[in-house]
Amino acid sequence: MSREFRRAMPLLPISMVMQLTELTARQIRYYEEHKLIEPARSEGNRRMFSLDDVDALLEIRELLDQGINMAGIKKVFDMRKNNNYVKSSNKMAISDSELRSILREEMQQAQIMQKASIRQGDLSRFFQAKGE
Amino acid sequence: MSREFRRAMPLLPISMVMQLTELTARQIRYYEEHKLIEPARSEGNRRMFSLDDVDALLEIRELLDQGINMAGIKKVFDMRKNNNYVKSSNKMAISDSELRSILREEMQQAQIMQKASIRQGDLSRFFQAKGE
DNA sequence: AATACCATGTAAGGAAAAATAACATATTAA
DNA sequence: TTAATATGTTATTTTTCCTTACATGGTATT
What we know:
The structure is a homodimer. Chain A has helices spanning 2-8, 14-21, 25-33, 51-65, 70-89, 96-117, and strands spanning 40-41, 47-48. The first copy, chain A, is mainly alpha-helical. A two-stranded antiparallel sheet of chain A has the order 1-2. The A-B interface holds A 2, 5-6, 9-13, 15-16, 38, 40-43, 48, 109-110, 113, 116-117, 123, 125-131 and B 2, 5-6, 8-13, 15-16, 38, 40-43, 48, 109-110, 113, 116-117, 123, 125-131. Chain A binds a DNA duplex through residues 13-15, 24-27, 29-30, 42-47, 64, 69-70.
């Protein structure tokens, strides 16, 4: 519950999401336009993204790479949403698919970290003067 | 290792940190000026904070509440830093103090979440149109 | 081949957020 | 009282982000 919440919390500005996902602002906004993500807005109307949003964007990128178009991706996302609904309605200990979902999540997280650390020229500059 | 890294990653703009910690920008910058935190900088010179930074700020707030001044807090932080060094140098399974440190971290995390969820008028507005 | 659509690039103009710097001030310490 | 701390406030400048509009290379359709 707390963990879910944490991942759903809108914290990141678009600039960070761009770096984490290697997507352009244009792309991110376009995917929002097509309802693949729905980032929150700050008072001043700035998009604020959650880690869940970042996950979704990474997946979008991947699916696009695989030649799937917006409509297809939307379908995939909708299916997953429904699946989640079913899952939570008849709550058992921990289903197979749930486990897989968790694993997938973990892997994406790992992926993010990898991106941020290895692929330099992006986040690297943020680790400059972190002194000492 | 990955978890540490994650918490050290500079992701948040100062506005989010203000909301998470209930500190003013002035305060946050002042603490930085006094080397209690050292947030990274974006290309455009904007401060980018990590979750570790947020933790530190929450602790600073608490210590100030307790009547401790900058110098005192700096001391506390330095002591912890040294302690961490000792800990990692003679690495055993998981020391007592490490466990406590982890627990403290967890509690602070919980504290953040509580802040963000319950104390509305702050983050609440970010959860508006997160539709459906 | 011509046309249309899709995903993205790019540019303009404006608004919001954040930076620095300087001065003000209430409380605490000497 | 005077000095030092921690924070508020204001002004000015940069940086980031927003929306809108138009351009474009690739695919698919006719």
